[in-house]
Design goal:
Blueprint: H1 2-28, E1 30-35, H2 50-59, E2 64-66, E3 72-74, E4 77-82, E5 88-93, E6 98-100, E7 106-109, H3 112-122, H4 132-135, H5 141-145, E8 157-161, E9 164-168, H6 176-179, H7 190-196, E10 213-219, E11 223-228, E12 242-247, H8 251-260, E13 266-269, H9 271-278, E14 288-289, E15 296-301, H10 313-320, H11 323-332, H12 335-339, E16 362-363, E17 366-367, H13 372-378, H14 385-398, E18 407-414, H15 420-435, E19 440-447, H16 452-457, E20 464-469, H17 506-516, H18 520-536, E21 540-545, E22 550-553, H19 584-606
Parallel strand pairs: 1-12, 18-19
Antiparallel strand pairs: 2-3, 4-5, 5-9, 6-7, 8-9, 10-11, 11-12, 13-22, 14-22, 15-20, 15-21, 16-17
Amino acid sequence: MKKYWLLLVCLTALLCAACSDDSSDEKKSEYRTVYSGELKTLNYLKTSETNEFAVAANLIDGLIEYDKYGIVQPSIAKEWKSNEDATVWTFKLREDVKWVTHEGKEYADVVAQDFVDGLNYVLDAKNESSTAWIATVLKNGNAFYEGEMTDFSKVGIKAIDKHTVEYTLEAPTPYFLSMLNYVCFFPVNGEFLADKGQKFGTTRENVLYNGAYILDKFEPQNERVLVKNDTYWDKDNVLIERIRSKYNKEAATVEPELFLRGEVDNAIIPTSIIDEWFNDEKKKTQVRQTQNNFYSYFYALNFNPQFDAEYEPENWKVAVNNKDFRKSLFHALDRVSAMLTVEPYNPKDLLSNTITPKNFVDVEGVDYTQLAPLEAIANVDSFNKDLALAYKEKAMAALEGKATFPVKVLMPYNSGVADWANRSQVIEQQIEKLLGADYVDIIIEAGPSTGFLAEVRRPGKFALLEANWGPDFADPSTYTDPFEADGTYNKPELAEGYTDTNGKTKYQNLVDAAKLSVDSDERYNLFAKAEAFLIDEAFVIPYAVGGSGYMASKLNPFEGQYSPFGVTAEKFKGQKVLEKPMSNDEFKEALAQWEQERADALAKVAK
């Protein structure tokens, strides 16, 4: 009996050890986060919201992707070519890419027609795709979208055969490859799409997957779980087995503590506690800077106010249509003080004086922001107390009897974003102190953490708003999109006194002229002229480039795919969960090494 009992104890111990080892391995390949902003759709062909296409980027592959240095690589397309003037692009597809269901069961091969069906959906106006405007780069794309043409076969995309897709464009587009990194060019299985109809993208069951991950669990305001797609064509480079994200309304507040308790693997560290972390021997080894990106942040002045009457939208409309009033706000915003809520040690590192960030594109070695039309703007801080007060006096004189002072300035913020509330308070106090409470009354208001864009920005329920825009492709035209006539930001086309004889705004005519130019030197200078006009007229106040200050994370940002545009940077492919978070010293060392390696890699490609 003792012999059997001893055997049982040994077997139990072995089983427990085995279970413990499996659990440890599983934990190492799981990445855990919390979030407060919920997804409203899984329909990647329709959305333009960052949190939604960030998930889609891990579920769906497009034709191309980028390596960790930002160099384009094959994805579903194994090779491609273009004609001499970059108006026709042909892609040969892999033959081993599968569509699978939410259960990982093979549904169909990914074929050329899937890319045709995806763009057919995007360019069909009744589907209300938020990214259709990008796809109008195709020949007849805009005509089909506007209903001027109903035969989609005349649009510039066709499946030459099962594994060859060809794009014909309206004009020479040498940067077309970079456009393919965006969700509107992603494929969809036409049969599945037709079968699901309006249900497509509403649940995890109503989506097919061809990317690195499958959505294993999707319970809004509870949890979503992505698991590795075992049929994925490049599964050996998918190193994280599971990505688990739990909903928490107070995510921005609680995630630092959750990180310390080992319950999550990533946390933004707000400035309110950053000193505490750096002064603590244990915590300071776990916090680091974030890598700057090419998102452009700016304050938008709204020319189509649709907020409640108590905030006096009509009075705001009168005031904002006065250039001197706009310029007073433009020069009154102390951006360094505002940035201290994000980067308390080196706030100027994130500031940007232009909408298009530095180092995005260049003309024969000259950075776009240093071209003649933008150079003076790019190199001078917009904050100027004397100018702000001088414009205030001009505005009050010009608006006497037309506007009521103080002008109410409704400035909402997203309650789910760390430090935004604090920043709003800083701006309110700083501007009112400089310009006087007799001139402006800045009213800050908490907006929703889920659906902020749909409920606040797009319907125009603001006077002044911190907004951002990320580039979709490698051309300065991408930074004009928020401000064009069909944009959903601050509607500068409604500003009084800026319409030319052709019925378009001066800004729109400048942009259109730039888009028509095929000479890169002339083209970039024309875009710079349009951007300078937008800023000189104070339709917007450029603020900063992306970079969320400080974080604690068990990811090495230099292992993942990199690109200034599109959805590449949202992918987990190629990354692994570190045993311990990077310290700031480790981050700086890795950044320097990555920058050198990237420069070498780009130089090699250029040869």
